[in-house]
From TrEMBL:
Gene name linked to the record: def
Residues binding Fe cation: 95, 137, 141
Name of the protein described by the UniProt record: Peptide deformylase
Any one GO molecular-function label of the UniProt entry: metal ion binding
Gene3D superfamilies associated with the record: Peptide deformylase (3.90.45.10)
Record key words, sorted: Hydrolase, Iron, Metal-binding, Protein biosynthesis
Function in brief: Removes the formyl group from the N-terminal Met of newly synthesized proteins. Requires at least a dipeptide for an efficient rate of reaction. N-terminal L-methionine is a prerequisite for activity but the enzyme has broad specificity at other positions.
Length: 174
């Protein structure tokens, strides 16, 4: 299965994702294809909508202390629901769908989610630090929200200007 990352400003990224009801081979195939794409593009999280599948599925693999992302640390999160959030932190986020742009974003420092795995089994995850930030970032994608939507008006205007300039440079480089 060949997947491509959908990039801003593609309207697909604004779609609200639908609940996964079938935990079948096609879901497994999608999850299996998303992981190498995420790793090969230096991501730590990827929502299905970012590869043009509007379903409530995401994967995460936060690097360990050596900067590695071993396959056994991969989290496949289907139909997540946040049940608790607390604390506040700011982290410089980036996004595979908004390449080469990073910005400080405020998030909850601790979150608890209920979700299903690829087989439909119900799980609970209590996360803090970078994992909690990544969960919130990817869950936003499921709602059609990008991290740039959380910027102040002034920062958003600056982003739009920088992004247009970068797109122009990209075109001229071809």
């Amino acid at each position: 299965m060949k997947l491509n990352i959908v990039e801003y400003p593609d309207k697909t990224l604004r779609k609200k994702s639908c609940e996964v009801k079938e935990f079948d081979a096609s879901l497994h195939k999608l999850l299996d294809a998303m992981n190498p794409l995420m790793i090969n593009t230096n991501g730590i999280g990827l929502a299905a909508i970012q590869v043009a599948y509007p379903i409530r599925a995401l994967i995460l693999n936060v690097p360990d202390e050596d900067g590695e992302q071993p396959p056994e640390n991969l989290l496949e999160i289907i139909n997540p629901v946040m049940t608790h959030k607390s604390g506040e932190t700011t982290y410089q986020e980036g996004c595979l769908s908004v390449p080469q742009f990073y910005e400080d974003i405020k998030r909850y420092d601790n979150v608890v989610i209920n979700y299903q795995d690829r087989y439909g089994n119900t799980k609970t995850l209590d996360a803090d630090g970078l994992l909690a930030i990544a969960i919130q970032h990817e869950m936003d994608h499921l709602e059609g929200i990008l991290f740039i939507d959380k910027l102040s008006y002034a920062r958003r205007k600056k982003f739009e200007k920088e992004y247009k300039r970068m797109q122009k440079e990209k075109k001229h480089a071809k």
